[in-house]
Amino acid sequence: MLLALANVIVPVLVVAGVGFALGRFYDLDAGTISKISLHGLVPAMVLHSLLTTQVSGAVGARLVLAYLAACIVGALVAAVLIGRVQAATRRAVMVSVAISNSGNMGLPIALFALGQAGFEQSILLFLASMILGFVVGPLLLGSSGGARAAVIGLLKLPVIWAVVVGLIVRAIGIALPTGVMRGVEMLSSATLPLVLLALGIQLGASRRVRFTRAVVVGSLIRVVAMPGLSLLIGWAFGLSGVPLQALVLAGAMPTAVNAFLLALEYKGDVRTVADTVTVTTILSFPVAALVTAALPLL
To answer: Per-residue pLDDT tens for 253-267?
Structure first.
């Protein structure tokens, strides 16, 4: 189990480590790299996922609603426990808790722990996490300019329109031209490496991880508390078996790199989010192992 989990996490650390080295030795523009990822590559990954994923019919609205409820409740708990901090830091902690890495870490671990049935349901949670992240993230991080400015900023994000296009194409049952689909797939394949490089570059250009109260509280809630909170909310929504296991396992995932990209894009507390991504990624290794071992009990 530990070897399999290591084979999932180590590639993530390798790519981010390359970015860290580049950021340490070269003066790179992390903002430009984040814009390429956020506005060019992430929408392609979301569109490709929507057009190619076959979600099990056993997955219902309760699973998605339970996941959204767990993320929102976790973010609100973090906002209360963080105490008196600057508004930007409070929003950064809430975003760090709400947006989890249900993709490049969550999906491989789900396949290993739950098999194909759990993997299909975890894909649904991944898509829900992407939509949640690009809705809650901009609304929180962009809220300093008012609700209207936040909504306008949200509508300017290509990922939102990628979701709309993907849902429409699937609903009417048409297929994109082969050449277009191959282009989307190529962009999608480049997404995860580049966002991890962007994270590593940001960390490499800054000092070592700061264990501030915001980082510690956000990290503990995101990785340690969320599996238990997801279990309770899953029970409240009447989930059991594999859907409940997928929900609990998603709760053990670290903060998504997309949270860092959004903080960089909206000029939020980037350092707090970046440090939380790093701490939760490392912390999620033993926690995910323990949660995986306990899943048969559910």
So the answer is: 999 888 888 888 777
Q: Hunting for tokens 């830091």 — which residue is that?
A: 89
Question: Which tens digits make up the pLDDT trace of 249-298?
Answer: 999 999 988 888 888 877 788 889 989 988 998 898 889 888 988 888 87
Question: Strand, helix or coil at 163?
Answer: helix
Whole-prediction pTM: 0.77
Using a pLDDT cut of 90, give the percent of the chain over it: 28
Split into its structural domains, the chain has a count of: 1
Q: The domain that contains 293 carries what CATH number?
A: 1.20.1530.20
DSSP the chain: -HHHHHHHHHHHHHHHHHHHHHHHHS---HHHHHHHIIIIIHHHHHHHHHHH----TT--HHHHHHHHHHHHHHHHHHHHHT-S--HHHHHHHHHHHHSB-TTTTHHHHHHHHHHHHHHHHHHHHHHHHHHHHHHHHHHHHTGGG-HHHHHHHHHT-HHHHHHHHHHHHHHHT----HHHHHHHHHHHHHHHHHHHHHHHHHHHHS-SPP--HHHHHHHIIIIIIHHHHHHHHHHHTT--HHHHHHHHHHHT--B-HHHHHHHHHTT--HHHHHHHHHHHHHHHHHHHHHHHHHGGG-
Please tell me the predicted confidence (pLDDT) of residue 248.
Answer: 96
Max avg pLDDT among 48-62, 168-182, 230-244 = 230-244
The CA distance from 188 to 200, in Å, is 20
**C-alpha 158 chain-centroid distance:** 17
Q: Has residue 143 got a pLDDT over 60?
A: no
3-state secondary structure of 237: coil
Give me the domain span that covers residue 152. Answer: 1-297
